[in-house]
Design a protein that fits this description.
The chain is mainly α. It is built from 16 helices and no strands.
Length: about 325
């Protein structure tokens, strides 16, 4: 097998997504004034699925066997089932029927770690998707996504899992489409400070997500086709985000966010368990001021960073633990 080169710009963006996920979950669960954020933050889980597809198409396709993708998908489904059965046994908030329904459609919000389902399905389909021309896959993916948006608006059909899956499939075909490399170079030439464009997009999404939750803005963020437009813009500039200054030592923001991205799957599970533990210990905890929500986001993010630093130290002392951990996550 060819050696896989790690793309730290993708780790950097996945680190941003982890912080965004913590932000969304804390505000949605504990902030009494921020329940409207749910639709705004669709771009964050969509980003995880989309860039998992991108990495499968751009980096892993042709270098990993079909068995690798099948095994990885089964692992993710196994993690989803075991983690939810654990939560179900403790909280007993949902029935097995509700669990099964959410497992298939993903609409009820009854389960935890929901993003693992479309993520696993995207990876499972990679050996089949690789048989299709990328340009044709992109065309049909966009058509299906537009159709799903129209079906949702008309009240005909709606499934979170299906729409996340379409986004993941589009990510795979974007990653495989070699002609997009020229478009990426044009993007960097057009925006020499591509890193600033990327950060500006992400900052705008955070601000828009947090404070513009009314009327047309909320509806625009609800469209899955809009999610793809944003993620495609990030896709164009992301690989070149750090190439303009390769010899400059990493600034703090990179040294902080890249490790979060490297351990993104583990931290996705970890931060949800932390939040659910807080809910279990303090079931009536609701913040009346968003300042406290921001403070909780900060502390959970720092806890995540400290946890992975501890794990890295364990890796040095127990190499077998690292091998098992990498295999699982």
């Amino acid at each position: 097998m060819a050696k896989i080169q790690r793309l730290f710009s993708y780790d950097f963006f996945k680190g941003i997504l982890i912080v965004g996920m913590i932000f969304a979950h804390v505000f949605y669960v504990f902030d009494g004034n921020a329940q409207f954020l749910e639709r705004f933050f669709l771009w964050i889980p969509a980003g995880f699925v989309f860039f998992s597809g991108v990495l499968a198409g751009e980096v892993l396709w042709g270098k990993k066997s079909s068995w690798y993708f099948i095994r990885r998908a089964v692992q993710l489904l196994g993690i989803f089932i075991v983690a939810n059965l654990f939560v179900l046994a403790i909280s007993k908030k949902i029935s097995f029927f509700e669990f099964s329904e959410d497992f298939i459609w993903g609409n009820q919000g009854a389960t935890s770690f929901e993003i693992l389902i479309p993520l696993a399905l995207t990876i499972l389909l990679v050996p089949l998707l690789g048989l299709f021309p990328p340009s044709l896959g992109i065309l049909w993916g966009i058509i299906f996504l537009l159709t799903a948006d129209i079906a949702r608006m008309e009240g005909v059909f709606y499934s979170y899992n299906l729409q996340f899956l379409i986004i993941g499939i589009l990510g795979f075909f974007f990653g495989r489409e070699s002609s997009l490399e020229n478009l990426r170079k044009s993007f960097v030439n057009l925006f020499p400070k591509a890193n600033m464009v990327i950060m500006g997009l992400v900052f705008w999404l955070f601000i828009g997500s947090a404070y513009l939750g009314k009327g047309i803005v909320l509806e625009v963020f609800s469209f899955w086709t809009f999610q793809i437009v944003i993620l495609f813009g990030i896709f164009l500039g992301l690989p070149n985000i750090f190439k303009s200054r390769p010899n400059i030592p990493k600034p703090f923001i990179r040294r902080f966010l890249e490790p979060l991205g490297v351990f993104s799957l583990f931290l996705y599970l970890f931060h949800i368990l932390v939040i659910q533990a807080l809910q279990f210990l303090m079931p009536k905890l609701v913040f009346t001021s968003s300042i406290w929500s921001f403070l909780l986001v900060f502390h959970i993010t720092v806890l995540c960073f400290a946890t992975i630093k501890i794990i890295e130290q364990i890796f040095k002392k127990f190499p077998r633990f690292e091998k098992a951990f990498r295999f699982l996550f």
